[in-house]
Write a structure and sequence with these properties.
four-stranded mixed beta sheet, alpha+beta, rod-shaped, 57% helix, 357 residues, 11 helices, four-stranded antiparallel beta sheet
Length: 357
């Protein structure tokens, strides 16, 4: 009975210890490099979202050597629990430095999405190293579907030679990938990689950002929710901020230029207005003189007018012309009517430049 109890305790301890790696996650990357040389160096790299076709030493996380059969293996618990973009690669030859080769005859690398919980195995595949793999990561499988969709679009556009049609094909590629991303993709890393593919295809991101900022902000928000303020989020935020700043600077420059142009126009209009005002002011006395000259005044009315301009009173005018005061007033009313004025002041202003015989 005591032995049975001891065995149970030992079994539980062993079970708990075996479960520890599962709780914390343990990755395994293994496979074969089908090369004549033995003890080849195989590199595992962590990539930024726009580094699918770039290679630098800063990307490399670990390296290992193949055995005599070409087998290699990475395993442990040091990768991120979140899905990220990785690369496995090995140099084709012994030339110093890092190489990325991918053509119809040879390839020496494979990019894949992976996490600390996953396993991936690469089978022997002739000269196309790492081309045949089995990856447990589900996001990587969705990425392959996106890649297949994009490759079909590019295949359809490959025969286009006309430049205008090529640009239209680029725009069509971007719109269809964006539509695919919005309808079929939920994982933020895949949305980010779709954005990178659009950008790499010479699409005018800035113009599209102005028209559809919601699409790009949606990627930013989903990255922050999944990754927090870590590398993918910060890199994308920096790129979008630069695009946004360029747009703002262009708008500011346009507004500044517009304000400058409007200022010049206002100044020119002001000059024209001043010129026209002065011209009209100069013409007004001449016009008034012509109007007065065209009037028919009697001899008595002209005499009375001259005396008014000399600031004579009605009584003084009557005495000087030997006529009654009522006659003077009658003549003055007639003058007001002919000259379209209401009083002596208006009459004097209107006739001050009038040339009298």
């Amino acid at each position: 009975m005591q032995k049975e109890k001891t065995f149970r305790v030992l079994f539980l301890i062993i079970l708990m210890l075996s479960a520890v790696p599962i709780c914390y996650g343990q990755y395994k990357i293994s496979g074969y490099v089908d090369a004549e040389e033995k003890n080849k160096t195989v590199y595992l790299s962590l990539l930024k979202y726009d580094e699918e076709t770039m290679i630098t030493e800063n990307q490399i996380l670990f390296s290992t050597q193949t055995d005599n059969s070409g087998y290699f293996e990475f395993k442990g618990q040091l990768l991120s629990e979140k899905d990220k973009l990785y690369r496995i690669h090995s140099n084709i030859n012994m030339i110093k430095g890092l190489q990325l080769v991918s053509d119809n005859e040879k390839s020496n690398y494979h990019n894949f999405i992976f996490s600390n919980r996953d396993t991936i195995h690469f089978s022997k595949s002739g000269n196309n190293w790492f081309s045949e793999s089995k990856n447990s990561n589900l996001t990587d499988k969705e990425w392959r579907k996106l890649k297949s969709f994009e490759e079909q679009l590019e295949k359809n556009n490959a025969q286009i030679k006309n430049k205008e049609a090529q640009q239209q094909a680029i725009n069509d590629f971007a719109e269809r990938v964006k539509s695919y991303s919005e309808k079929n993709i939920k994982h933020p890393l895949l949305k980010l990689l779709a954005f990178s593919d659009i950008k790499r295809n010479d699409f005018n991101i800035k113009n599209d950002f102005e028209k559809n900022e919601v699409f790009y902000d949606g990627i930013l928000n989903s990255l922050k929710n999944y990754y927090g303020e870590t590398s993918y989020y910060l890199q994308y935020q920096d790129e979008i901020s630069k695009i946004s700043n360029v747009i703002l600077q262009q708008k500011y420059a346009f507004q500044k230029k517009l304000n400058y142009t409007l200022g010049i126009l206002v100044f020119i209009l002001a000059l024209i207005s001043i010129f026209q005002f002065r011209k009209l002011k100069a013409l007004k006395p001449q016009k008034t003189i012509r109007q007065i000259s065209s009037l028919t005044l009697t001899n008595q009315e002209e005499k009375i007018t001259k005396l008014i301009l000399e600031d004579k009173s009605n009584k003084e005018i009557a005495d000087e012309l030997f006529i009654s005061l009522s006659t003077v007033k009658t003549h003055i009313r007639n003058l007001y009517g002919k000259l379209d004025v209401a009083n002596r002041h208006e009459l004097a202003s209107k006739l001050k430049n009038h040339p009298w015989d």
